[in-house]
Design goal:
- With 194 residues, this protein is mostly beta strands.
- It has two helices and eleven strands, in the order αββββββαβββββ.
- It has an eight-stranded antiparallel barrel.
- A hairpin with a 2-residue loop joins strand 8 and strand 9.
- The chain is globular.
- The chain starts with a helix and ends with a strand.
Length: 194
Amino acid sequence: MKLLLGKLIRPVMAAALLATPAFAADDYVIDSGHTLVVFELNHLGFSKTIGWMGDVSGTISYDADDIAKSAVSVTMAVSAVNTNHPERDGWIKSDKALNVAANPEITFTSTGIEVSTETTGKITGDLTMNGVSKPVVLDAVFNGAGSNPLTKKETIGVSATTSIMRSDWGVTAFVGPLGDEIAIQIELEAVKAE
């Protein structure tokens, strides 16, 4: 009986070990103090209005052995939008634009990563804003990974850019006088979860 059980158990154990990845991704938490999402929009043809999302949180599942298997999940609080103009900020948060009461958060969840070079690639994901989800592609630069010399914590840094048409997310007020296209720049640091 022992011999029979041994013959049955060994192949099952071997299959289980083979199915387990040799290296698992590491979890990192976005460092909100060193992360900023900046956006700009044409203002009547005279200038570009620049604003930022200062309350950014989320996680990165970072696979150093296969970057394409990494994943990103980000949340931004609409209540923290800042364009250096309180009246305009209030309008952005109102039901005429992002409607913070109904949709308090903007989220981005990656669905794939395409590696171009050792330091560049494209991150595809779903951007949910104003109650609408649509795919976007970020052009990303991997700035590096290692021990932060100040905190001694394992840290990764990423810069990314993209552009979207705000009307695609139902934010259509004043399209024409104000630009529809929004250019977005992201500077992000994340710290390895303890």
